[in-house]
Amino acid sequence: MFKQIATKNTSKKSTDASSPVNDLQRLGFSEYEACTYLSLLQGSPATAYEVSKHSGLPRANIYGALESLAKKRAVQPVSENPTRYVPVEPSALLGRIASDVGDLCERLQQTLETLEPKESPDVVWSIDGEEQIAAKVDELIDHALQHVWIKASTDVLRRHAPRLKKAAARGVKLIFVVFGEDTKFLRFGKGTKVYLHEGNGQRVGGADNLFTIAIDYRLALTANLGETLTGAYTTNPAIVRMAETLIRHDVYMAEMMAYLGKEIEERFGKGLIELRRSLFSPEQMSELTANLEKAKKAVNES
């Protein structure tokens, strides 16, 4: 027998985001299913006709809602001819839903964590922040198979020394073009070559704030480690080739300076200042001049 224990109008659409109808919909119930379940909570056992009369919902929709709720194990029939339904207790229903959703989320999390984004060669991926950039550099070093070429300051490279050492142990060949003089920590065996930038490792025009790495002829990353910590990496062949070419020419320059440094500096000045004067920005020239003055002062004091 249908026993009414609450007011009608459960079918009226609530504007309250926390209403039972809205909350049940967030758990996967349709609006008719939610209203039907709530109507049965308010009075049961009940037939589809009685639920319709009590809730104000069209009877045709109630039949479908009851069948769907039965499949969801939210209601169950207790008699036939006519079929009457009772609701599953809310604690049992919601406990089962919570368990099912929890299991689903755990399984989905495990699946999603195994997926790796496919990095299109046409895309340049941006990264910002010191920790994010450092983590990406470590990741790239860990996955290197043939070689790692890096142009950077020794201050920055110290952080990555443990990863680079492991790469060298795997047989990965390492080439460094560095700003700075202390390079002992980069000596990882015969597969490693270290070049001081332009033969002396002096800082010029802010270039020491740039970190450039090229790996296996297939991937490159560059980052500005100055006041603005931002970078980008890509597998785009043209950009990878550009990064490789930059490092190659720095290697060539370091080799030439090792043999012809005195003659080159006599012609173009310390820090190649005469060459750079027409190409550097005023800010870069100012920084270069300051760095050259510091280097000169250090030599005089030594």
UniProtKB/TrEMBL annotation:
One matching Pfam family is Regulator_TrmB
Would you indicate the residue range of the signal peptide?
none
| Species whose genome carries this gene | Parapusillimonas granuli
The segment annotated Disordered runs over 1-22
Domain Transcription regulator TrmB N-terminal stretches: 24-90
Q: Where is the Transcription regulator TrmB C-terminal domain?
A: 124-187
- Highest rank taxon of the organism: Bacteria
Q: Which CDD domains match?
A: PLDc_like_TrmB_middle
The protein, known as: TrmB family transcriptional regulator
